[in-house]
Amino acid sequence: MGVIVHRIQAECHASDLAGDIAVFDRGRHPLVQLSILSEAKVVSLARLDADLALRLTPPVEDSDIARKVGRMAFGLYAVHDYPHLAAPARWEFIGYTARQADFAHLRWLYEVIGARRVVCEVTDLSNQYEAACSGIGVAGLPCFIGDADPGLRRLPDAHPALSLDVWIALHPDRRNDTRVRDAMRDIGALVAAGALAL
Question: Can you tell me the distance from the alpha carbon of 53 to that of 18, in angstroms, rounded to the nearest whole number?
Fold first, then answer.
């Protein structure tokens, strides 16, 4: 039997997801090749752009089969030698470009920013992380990414922290595909057990 490719769309930092699910690929599913799509757009399960989707929003298509598998917390991060660490009023932020759609992380970040300066705009979460690591400003990152990087520190802030549900979804046409169903179950279990450090 040949290698079966399953495409997973993930709304998170792709390199962190790939490293954490290595146990999935090597363990019970030796013939499954995971193709992780970490894009700024939501792929359509109805068009079979992906077999599974890990999302921070409930299902976008009524036909999707989905279940909540965990939560993802966000915080503010900057490099340790960021020049305005002790002066939150002077923090300069890494925001998103105008091309970005309205989503909870963007709304939260701009509520936190308020009247403060946006020093850099990026298109996705991976670029937020890279910009924060460069030292240019403060980013709103998932805690499992920011806390794991020794070059970054979490910043205290008066605004409420953001925590979003993590959903895993598949198209109904894939429900009888044993490999997709097993992948959904096992990835969902990894998230629920905290193996993805969400």
Answer: 14
pLDDT in the model for residue 160? 84
Query: Could you tell me if 84 and 144 lie in one domain?
Result: yes
Query: Is the distance from CB of 193 to CB of 36 less than 8 angstroms?
Result: no
Q: State both tokens at 26.
A: 């090597």
Mean pLDDT of 143-172: 88
The label of the residue with tokens 């019970």 reads: 28
Q: Is the pLDDT of residue 13 over 50?
A: no
Distance CA 121, CA 98 (A): 9
CATH of the domain at 184: 3.40.190.10
Total domains present in the chain: 2
Q: For residue range 105-141, what is the model confidence (pLDDT) as tens digits?
A: 889 999 999 999 999 999 888 889 999 999 999 999 9
pTM: 0.75
Q: Which helix (H) or strand (E) holds 165?
A: strand 162-170
- Report the Cα–Cα distance between both ends of the chain, in Å, rounded: 34
Q: Which domain holds residue 91?
A: 72-162
- β-partners of residue 52 are 8, 170
Assess whether 139 and 124 both reside in one domain.
Answer: yes
